[in-house]
């Protein structure tokens, strides 16, 4: 049974999650993301046969402004806005997949070279900080747009979830990968992104090869840069767990092997991404 303490923690966590949607900024970002919003729209339109004339429940319509939007569009007689928390129900989209690929990244190199530059700027040598900087950069998930040309091997589909069959808690998600590198380059980390599938072949993808969305991509920088050649294999496993601090965040463990050397990196995700 859930203890009173963990129940209180969860309810506080839920409050901060719902608060994160109370400002207009996140709604500008989501609704302004045309790839996302148009894909949802298309999924609804293509499911016309199942939806037309039925009672439809849209869970998580957003802010309490939904009533005003209904009024402004003259649909208040057809749409009832219920303010409250919902649990359970049918899940759309039907499946979700996580992808991953190794990347080269000049920006992270520049961030590290910054410390070398201090000799010239202030006549104080600070290169010794580079190792610490590298550890900091490689301990958090970095949300950013990844340029397709920085991807250095074909992406691997690390795991897929059938969202209709999911149990409540997503724990200890594991997936493996094997990358065959395109050519001579320095690898600085791995990009990850997701794809969700609706029926009628509708796909919402956050791939760096597709139109950008507000989700961008996530980069897991490695503490060490790795020189690879064409055909170098990078194998390993990615493991995701809900953070012990906050169940909506993730703790990530990345194990990988390059040229028979094994590495383990741990990352925390400490912001809504
Ligand atoms: C990702 S936003 C989507 C907002 C809007 N539907 C859109 O697509 O632009 C998710 C919304 O669902 C709400 N939400 C999440 N879980 C909920 C629950 N269990 N019951 C009611 N609302 C929920 C959040 O507060 C947030 O406003």
From TrEMBL:
Gene3D superfamilies: Hnrnp arginine n-methyltransferase1, Vaccinia Virus protein VP39. Pfam families: PRMT_C. One of its GO terms (molecular function) is histone methyltransferase activity. Residues 95-259 form the Protein arginine N-methyltransferase domain. InterPro entries: Arg_MeTrfase, PRMT_dom, SAM-dependent_MTases_sf. GO terms for biological process: methylation. Keywords: Methyltransferase, S-adenosyl-L-methionine, Transferase. It comes from the Eukaryota. PANTHER family: PROTEIN ARGININE N-METHYLTRANSFERASE (PTHR11006), PROTEIN ARGININE N-METHYLTRANSFERASE 6 (PTHR11006:SF73). This is Protein arginine N-methyltransferase 6. It comes from Paralvinella palmiformis.
